[in-house]
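A.,

Following up on our hallway conversation. Structure tokens first:
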């Protein structure tokens, strides 16, 4: 393939832009897989779940406490009624004996209920303290996550801006490069990251392998508009250092005299 050397050298600019776009894509992937951000998200979710569970446990305890309180109230009311019956003088001796026995039973039941109530209240106090601490941690983790998201958003914004600029630059470059040369570049670039590289001395700028003196002979002898490809990696080799023609020697004074 033939192509103006100036157009060939533009491929290096195109390659530089594509390399930048690749790096921007890698930066985006790195942000998506950032372990610190993932850890912040997981911690915030775990703490929120723990707070929700503790809130549910407290609600269950409150129902148990309310149930015990109702039972205590019923036992107290029953005992008060029994005492009132005994004090009325209307109960027979047998009824009085039964009422006394029931009062003793009610007293034992009330004692058990009050012990249960105390235990439930202590458990509630501990859970409430734990929930307060977890809620504090939730707020702290939420702030850490918000800061991480803000930083991530800022970096993504920078990547989006740089990507848009690089894409615009690429489009402008492609317009000014012959279609056949662009097509060759795109075919190579679809298979490997570097499709065009500078030939520096005898070294390929893509695979970094150095050409032998024998390999350099056809490269040096090729016309400047010949599109050269690296035999090792297949990229387009851009010659930026071309051999200069030997300067023509000036005629001597004796030779000049022949024409005078």
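Then the amino acids I'd put at each of the 260 positions:
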């Amino acid at each position: 393939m033939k192509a103006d050397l100036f157009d060939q050298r533009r491929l290096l600019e195109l390659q530089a832009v594509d390399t930048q776009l690749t790096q921007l894509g890698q930066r985006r992937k790195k942000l998506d897989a950032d372990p610190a951000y993932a850890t912040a998200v997981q911690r915030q979710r775990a703490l929120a779940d723990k707070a929700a569970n503790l809130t549910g446990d407290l609600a269950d305890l409150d129902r148990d406490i309310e149930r015990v309180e109702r039972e205590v109230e019923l036992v107290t009311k029953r005992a008060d009624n029994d005492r009132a019956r005994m004090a009325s003088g209307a109960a027979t001796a047998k009824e009085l004996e039964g009422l006394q026995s029931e009062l003793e039973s009610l007293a034992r039941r009330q004692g058990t209920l009050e012990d249960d109530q105390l235990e439930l209240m202590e458990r509630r106090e501990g859970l409430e303290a734990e929930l307060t601490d977890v809620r504090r941690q939730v707020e702290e983790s939420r702030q850490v996550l918000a800061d991480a998201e803000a930083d991530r958003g800022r970096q993504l914004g920078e990547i989006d801006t740089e990507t848009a600029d690089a894409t615009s630059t690429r489009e402008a470059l492609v317009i000014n490069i012959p279609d056949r040369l662009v097509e060759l570049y795109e075919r190579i670039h679809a298979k490997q990251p570097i499709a065009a590289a500078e030939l520096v001395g005898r070294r390929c700028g893509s695979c970094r392998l150095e050409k032998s003196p024998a390999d350099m002979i056809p490269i040096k002898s090729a016309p400047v508009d010949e599109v050269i490809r690296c035999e090792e990696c297949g990229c387009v080799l851009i010659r930026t250092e071309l051999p200069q023609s030997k300067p023509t020697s000036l005629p001597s004074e004796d030779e000049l005299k022949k024409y005078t």
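Strands lie at 196-200, 203-204, 228-229, 236-239. Curious whether your intuition agrees with the design.

B.
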